[in-house]
Design brief:
Elements: E1 2-8, H1 16-29, E2 33-39, H2 51-67, E3 74-77, H3 83-92, H4 97-101, H5 104-112, H6 118-132, E4 138-140, H7 146-163, E5 171-173, H8 207-215, H9 236-247, H10 258-284, H11 287-316
Parallel strand pairs: 1-2, 2-3, 4-5
Helix pairs in contact: 2-10, 2-11, 3-6, 3-11, 6-7, 8-10, 9-10
Bound molecules: adenosine monophosphate.
């Protein structure tokens, strides 16, 4: 059985974009692969955030992963599997400052902060460790992570060439164009869990909040008979609403006005989120159960990753 690995960073509240672009495909993936789905809580520390906020985000995200139905996977927190950080250090010993400095995401993120944490610079190496420890055959990633997976391959090949064959070299696969949900207020940028709240629908937003956000979504001034149509370049806001509606099981066929489109989008999104929110409420009432699931998952991850870490340690002479 193939292995599938995916990590989500608790850097904000999970959004409708995360659901349609990542969590739903992850749920579907459970039928055809052995899935390891993790919360990359260490990655969240690469930029400043206070401990209480992080703790809340981790608890909410853990509960949501279960609430969306990832209950046939190994769920775990990265920080509870120490092999990730230990292998990361060994990989730092073959990675170079030159190649890390070329990472586009590092260049962009470091421009936004006055001081830059060392961990923001080295985080692609931790990500390489996250991947290599599980020997996944394929790593499906979006465009924004492609450079990091190429780095993972380069580091693994160099390690193998220097110390002996330890790592399986993962293939990069480009998943079929998945849902790409745009921000409701600024439809040319992606809806993001760390972006402004107004244009982003959180999975736990109650129906009236969803209604208000969709009602304020940017459209355009086109009032012609064919104004409700998809055209990403000319009508990014309307296209985004149509795509959200379709992804949530609705259809824009026969809808003629933006008001009617927004009402249909609201209903479809509220219906999509309702079972997740109901399950979330049940799980949130039993935090010990959620914790136990993640602890059991971490135990399984510690067992699965131990031989890979031992092989790497031994290869370098430790
Ligand atoms: P991020 O929230 O950027 O850490 O991404 C976590 C996962 O959710 C990745 O698989 C992303 O591709 C996916 N994702 C995040 N935002 C969106 C979005 N607006 N539309 C579709 N997929 C998204």
């Amino acid at each position: 059985m193939t292995r599938r690995l995916s990590l989500l960073t608790p850097s904000g509240r999970l959004t409708l974009g995360n659901l349609l672009g990542a969590l739903r495909p992850m749920r579907a993936g459970q039928d055809s692969a052995e899935c390891f789905y993790g919360i990359s809580d260490l990655h969240a520390l690469t930029t400043p955030r206070d401990a209480a906020t992080l703790r809340t985000a981790i608890t909410e995200q853990s509960t949501l992963l279960l609430a969306v139905g990832l209950d046939r996977s190994t769920l775990f927190r990265q920080s509870r599997v120490p092999a990730h950080t230990e292998l990361s250090f060994l990989l730092e010993c073959v990675a170079t400052t030159g190649e890390l400095g070329r990472m586009t995401q590092f260049k962009e993120k470091s421009r936004r902060h006055e001081t830059v944490r060392c961990s923001l610079f080295t985080y692609p190496v931790l990500m390489a460790a996250d991947i290599l420890l599980y020997r996944p055959e394929q790593v499906p990633v979006g465009d924004d992570q492609r450079q990091h997976i190429e780095l993972t391959r380069d580091i693994a090949l160099r390690f193998n060439a220097t110390y002996g064959e330890v790592f399986a070299i993962p293939e990069i696969t480009v998943p079929p164009a998945g849902a790409r949900v745009m921000d409701l207020a600024e439809p040319t940028r992606k809806m993001s869990k760390s972006g402004p709240d107004a244009g982003s629908i959180a999975l736990l937003d109650p129906p009236d909040v969803v209604r208000r956000k969709v009602a304020r979504a940017v459209t355009d001034s086109d009032t012609g008979p064919a104004s409700v149509r998809a055209d990403r370049d000319a009508k990014p806001g309307v296209t985004n609403l149509i795509e959200i509606l379709t992804a949530c099981g609705g259809s824009a066929d026969g809808i003629a006005t933006y008001g009617a489109l927004k009402a249909a989008v609201t209903d479809a999104v509220v219906a999509e989120l309702a079972p997740i929110q109901a399950r979330y409420a049940e799980l949130a009432a039993d935090p010990a159960y959620v914790q136990e699931v993640f602890e059991r998952g971490a135990e399984h991850c510690r067992a699965v990753t131990a031989p890979v870490l031992s092989a790497a340690r031994e290869a370098v002479g430790l």
